[in-house]
Amino acid sequence: MMKKRHLLEKPWFLRLALVGLIAGVLFIYHFVQNSDHSLLCSFAAESPRADSSATQIQLSAILHYATSRIVPQQTLAEITVSFDVLQSLASCNFLVFGLGFDSLMWSSFNARGDTLFLEEDPKWVQTVLKDAPTLRAHTVRYRTHLSEADDLLSTYRSVPECMPPKAYLRGNNRCKLALSDLPDEVYDKEWDLIMIDAPRGYFPEAPGRMAAIFSAAVMARARVRPGVTHVFLHDVDRRVEKVYAEELLCRKYQVGSVGRLWHFEIPPAANLSRASDSTGFC
């Protein structure tokens, strides 16, 4: 995710496009609310209070991106892919690894759903939430360093708790790739879409995204509800992101690629029939 020290100013048309996307969501939402025939079935069950909250998030996002020279790190093409999936789901459970100046955008795209951000830096969480208090975020403690990526990749298969069908997250201290100490709501909820755009992974002491990718794969395989889990991984131009995605998220589940973003649709492990699928990730 983009942080203050890494911000790059983007062309004015990207800011305009973001405002247009968010405004479009808001327009469709109000059209549905005033229509006799609901386009999105989930809207019908929402309360007026939830309606007002969704609108406020979207209006805040429009105001932010219309008046700021700071825009998301992802390109418009990359953003649009995730936007299209979020709109197809109507409202969903959306887990985002990373918190930044694009977080208000993601939350507004899923204003009628549940969006949660996981961030490594407690001070950064305070900074972002000060300006966007409607966002929901938790701090994550990573047990890995980027310098360990190759060793972890070559040894994780020897740890039973890292491998399907025994792989799990909550309290799994034996598997270093498992995010074992997240808030309960992360484990208790099934996430329809997971965006991995953090933690930092560009210097040896950084946590790297190995644990985020592993944990997303475990969450997706544990899904019980119908449907697949959409996983988006950014910065696949970097070697570690690429090799871990191929190892854990699997090329056979990749359904799209735009710029530095890969899109996977991972089915629940219960839906897999081959023996190899139940004893490994790919």
TrEMBL record:
It is a single-pass membrane protein. It holds the Pfam family IRX15_IRX15L_GXM. It is found in: Golgi apparatus membrane. The keyword Transmembrane helix applies. Keywords: Membrane, Transmembrane, Transmembrane helix. InterPro entries: IRX15/GXM/AGM, SAM-dependent_MTases_sf. The chain crosses the membrane at residues 12-32. The keyword tRNA processing does not apply. PANTHER family: OS11G0490100 PROTEIN. This is Polysaccharide biosynthesis domain-containing protein. It comes from Vitis vinifera.
